[in-house]
Prior knowledge:
Oligomer: single chain
Shape: globular
Distance between the termini: 27 Å
Number of domains: 2
Structural class: alpha/beta
Helix content: 40-55%
Number of strands: 6
Radius of gyration: 17 Å
Order of helices and strands: EHEHHEHHEHHEHE
Low-confidence stretches: none
Strand content: 5-15%
Amino acid sequence: MHHYIVIEGPLGVGKxxxxxxxxxxxxxxxxxxxxxxxxxxxxxxxxxxKHAFQAQIFFxxxxxxxxxxxxxxxxxxxxxxSDFLFDKDRIFARANLEDNEYWLYEQLFRILRKRxxxxxxxxxxQAKTPVLAERIRRRNRKYERGISYKYLDRINQAFNEFFFHxxxxxxxxxxxxxxxxxxxxLEFEDLVDHIQAMTSGTQYYVPMSSR
Length: 211
């Protein structure tokens, strides 16, 4: 049985939706990241060079603070489902920071990571960049309007590369371009079955429509 499940993926892939649905389905505890609370985010998308370091450090400390809550609760009494993986913070840091900024960031990251609880299952939602761009356009969040397609594609490729090499926890890779778990109950139930059956290693979920 999984006690700490993390849903991850690039911007617009649907990780928060799945995390909320899954936690409700299994009677778990939801641990959600509120991206909009970052006061530097709007400035970052308007002027990345000026605000990248402040935005990244805020995210790092906030993600650590949220993850640290897990040490204060009994993970064995109730499943926790989160919509972020602490380690993924590095993906954005490497993509957005200058070398000297990243060096400083990395020192802090390594100190904090030693105190972070690792999940016993990670679900990586991956999707093609055009799909992500369309989903971001449809949800029309103010702070996301400044995201360029080029930046989105760069982050998407960085996520794919990161999880291609990820081995710290069992990993279920889901092609989210071809699954609508929000509006299709059958697809959601099928995905939940695969999540609950997941044990070790890396596995790839094939959507019902592709079998």
